[in-house]
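hey all, quick one before standup. I had two proteins in the batch that finished overnight and I want to keep them in one place so we stop losing track of which output belongs to which input. First protein below, input sequence then structure tokens straight from the run.
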Amino acid sequence: MSSREDETLARAAVAALTRQLELTPQPGLPDPRDLGARVTGRDHRALRWSAKALVPGLTAMAACARRNGAPTPGLRAELGAIGRCTEHSVRLAGGGHRGATWVLGLLVAAAAMEPGARGRELTAMAKQIVAHPDRRAPRRPSRGSSVSAQYGAAGARGEARAGFPHVRRALDVLAGARGMGTPEGDARLDALVTVMSTLQDTELLYTAGPHGLRRVQAGARAVVEAGGTATDAGRAALTALDTDLRGRGWSPRGSGALLAGALFVDALPVAAARVAA
């Protein structure tokens, strides 16, 4: 049985995903400019609507983790089963948040198991959860796992098994940008392009190949090296990258999902305060 705390965590995760979707301009990713139009392969309005369909599944993951109390093989199998059911529900709702379901599901489970954990402690707990194999996972390889095997990329599973290093990088960028007085929207975009600059995004590898992935990473680094999105040069580099990706139909969805995970972890103190109130 789920509790108020479990649902609060789930809603905080969906709110973080919504904040990621609201950013603009997001290079190659759906954003408010795409309302009602499938410019980047997804209707932005449908994505925002279908994000709400994650709440029951994420609540169930939190309740499962709280009940188990330890990162056991049994917990890993239960979370995998809930995650697959959640992905199915989200598809029926018109969205495609597969990467976000994986990232947010593990982080929500970690937060439920260790209520006081924040930042690196939280990602370390998620790493312990995913260290176990998912015994109930379908034997047929997924597109992401096939691409990972073909190119030697870490992929979503490798990212989790490493303790979500790109979530931690995004958190560091958010803290640093805020410390310098950077507007919040620009701080979040800086975190996004920082993730894009090094992530071996299997979605990009599938659609664009290694050359395309390197092109995207170089474009993202250009934004960072120009001083970030709050500067004129950085904003120009961001616009150029966005135009390039949209023209080619390339979408760094893995980076978007990891930014949503970072925004969830970042908001945890606020979510905890709401439960206590």
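OK second protein, same deal, sequence then tokens:
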Amino acid sequence: MQVDQTYTASQPNRADWFKRIFEGSWQLWVVYVIFLIISALSVSSALSSEIYKSSTSGFGFAPIFKHLIFLLAAFGLTVLTSQLPPAWFRNKALLYSAIVIAMILALPFFGKEINGAVRWIDVLGFSLQPSEFFKLCLILWGAITYTLSNESPERANLYFGVYWVVSGLFIGLFMLENLSTGVLFGVFVAIYSIILKAPWRLLFKFGVPILVLGAAFVAALIWVSPQQLGKIHERAITWQNRLHKIAKDDDASKFILNDADRQSQMGQIALANSRLLPHGPGSSKVRDSLPMAYSDFIYAIIVEEYGIFGLILVPLLYIFWFYWAGHLAMREKNRHRRALLLGIGLMFPLQALVNIAVVAGIFMTGQTLPLISYGGSSLMVCSIAMGMMLSISRVQNEVASLESEVALLEGGARDLGLDSK
């Protein structure tokens, strides 16, 4: 009787709504909230140019309120996703993929052109970026591929081959409008497949032709004239200019401010303005002049306003994201959930690495900083991904708690001289 009372008393209090909502890994919750706080402070400061534009309509702080609403909605989405059972992510993967694919296919016909590229589409009054949502497709498809290949090892080549072909078709579509996004997706699929232990022979068969095509593409950008490239694709000239800029040895050009390199140069100025100690939001001197300061170059604003503290803290958060996803994956016995954790832990820190490299001037491309940059689509997808990790960690905690209770019951039975079986 005493054993039954001990077991009943050890059950979690389901009436405690706060504990029920935040049952997942408290470490992830802390990091997630820090991300949102950094986003609220840094984006609000970097939106100064947008605030000035909206002030002409009589409500200057509308962009800040909009971003804060995005953050609150993202937090709610994370809470909701964290409460879903992990099996739901596999069961609804087909439905989610169908919705995202429909948006991608509708993009050429109904998409909006911004900055010379068609990347956004209006859905139910909201402007969404399908490429952001496609990131979860790559993760979900990879997790299902890994699970099926382990259940039927003799068909692993088929499963991974289908994953690569289907992913490659959509990655190619994204490359036509945004080369950097397509390359990011391709690199992710390659690394993710290696982590998921794809057959090496199959990797070689697919990888070598892709590397050859990639080398031929780079060679074309180097040697083909801009006039000819423009006839092939209108954005090819932009890709060529960025490649030439990377390979350029003339350091003196870095000090010449021009329209073509304004973002990169103003980002470098923001980094140069940073100081050792933080000066807080609103102290940036280039936020009004730096294009996309609140999105692609938000890290430059963070470093300028928060000095070495911001310089180190932001990368550390993504390093922890990467590490903790791997830690949870090592604990996970379910193959599908393990693959989801590995995919989420790779995709978004990898994107952050690209963004930070751009701000540092290593190369020039456009990628948002996950969970920090301004933008509803990016915040939604990153928050869903974080919620998926929290959902899996919640189940892990419940299993660990149940195992400890079973061990306690078995120990009590042995103390009473009862057969534990």
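Flagging for whoever picks this up: Confidence is low (pLDDT under 50) at residues 1-11. The two ends are 17 Å apart (CA to CA).
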